[in-house]
Specification:
alpha/beta; eight-stranded mixed sheet; globular; single chain; Rossmann fold
């Protein structure tokens, strides 16, 4: 991908990191957690608003090259509406990550193992009445994949511009014999062979239909990284899914559209 696209993504990350102040005045319990993941420890932050429990828990999954700070304004808004949150860094997942591992070791399947470890950690926690997954871009891909692996543990799913395109992107990096180099570039970032090999080892559309719970997908109609058609195709696979098309939005929601997304997502979670 071109360098300008990469820095556009970083701009979206900063927009989230710098505006997450909605829950600043709330009384909340916050704890830093380390959970054993695919490449070592997963670093995450658990936040629980002061309220009669048990409460629903939203697990937030960041995209390629990101970290939990890019989702913090979402986590803060969810907290302000009475939802507990676990915001974390995938192992090897991105810049500024406090989890173990490097991006040379990371793939969608290592991230799926991380998310499975997190679900294992919280699935029997009596403080939480339900578990919801929220994922953006590659985090949306991983959330969709993982929910399909263990639908009994996930009560509903929100996907923002899920990166279902990444398998086609990986196939385009393959040599004529189908092999991949030891390292390659993705959005100016060096990734390892495992990233591409794992990406093409299955078809995401053959997997996600195993999740029969409710799914809410939000996707910009001007997304230059993950074309809208990838989310439209998911509607044909899911048993119960809604797609909200965000007019004028690219890969990451900005301004009023970002706030609208938060509000629609909270309404979806609270309906469950």
């Amino acid at each position: 991908m071109k360098r300008w696209i990469f820095f556009a993504l970083i701009g979206v990350w900063l927009a989230g990191a710098l505006t997450g102040a909605e829950a600043a005045d709330m009384k909340i319990e916050k704890n830093e957690l380390l959970i054993q993941g695919s490449l070592g420890n997963i670093y995450g932050e658990l936040a629980i608003p002061e309220a009669e429990g048990p409460l629903p828990l939203v697990i937030l999954c960041h995209g390629f090259g990101g970290n939990l700070q890019g989702n913090q304004d979402y986590a803060d808004y969810f907290l302000s509406q009475g939802l507990a949150t676990f915001n974390f860094d995938f192992c090897g997942g991105g810049f500024g990550s406090r989890s173990d591992g490097t991006m040379l070791e990371m793939s969608v399947l290592t991230e799926a193992r991380d998310l499975n470890a997190i679900l294992d950690h919280f699935s029997e926690d009596a403080r939480f009445s339900k578990i919801f997954l929220w994922g953006s871009s590659q985090g949306g891909f991983v959330s969709a994949y993982t929910a399909a692996q263990r639908p009994q543990d996930v009560d509903a799913v929100v996907l923002e511009f899920p990166a279902f395109v990444l398998q086609d992107d990986a196939r385009a990096r393959a040599a004529e014999d189908g092999s991949f180099p030891e390292t390659s570039k993705l959005m100016t970032v060096t990734i390892g062979r495992i990233y591409s090999e794992d990406a093409v080892s299955f078809d995401i559309y053959d997997v996600i239909g195993a999740y029969t719970g409710d799914v809410l997908i939000l996707h910009g109609d001007r997304d230059s990284i993950v074309p809208l058609k990838y989310s439209q195709r998911a509607l044909d696979v899911y048993a119960s899914a809604e797609l909200i098309v965000m007019p004028g939005q690219n890969h990451g929601f900005m301004g009023a559209a970002r706030q609208e997304a938060k509000e629609r997502e909270v309404a979806f979670f609270l309906a469950h």
